[in-house]
Amino acid sequence: MKSIEELTAGILGGYLISEAEALDLLHHAETDALCDAADRVRRHFMGDRLDTCSIMNARSGRCPEDCKWCSQSVHHKTKIDVYPLTDQAEALRHARDNHDKGVGRFSLVTSGRTMTDAQIDRCVEIYRAIAAECERFRGGMLCASMGLLTREQLQRLRDAGVGSYHCNIETAPSYFPKLCSTHTLDEKLRTIGWAREAGMKICSGGIIGMGETAEQRVEMAFALRNIGVASIPVNVLNPIPGTPLENMPPLPDDAILRTFALFRLINPAVYIRFAGGRTLLRPEIQERALRSGVNAAIVGDLLTTIGSGIAQDKEMFARCGFSC
Ligand code: SF4
Question: Considering only the top CATH level, what class is 28-319?
Answer without folding.
Answer: alpha beta
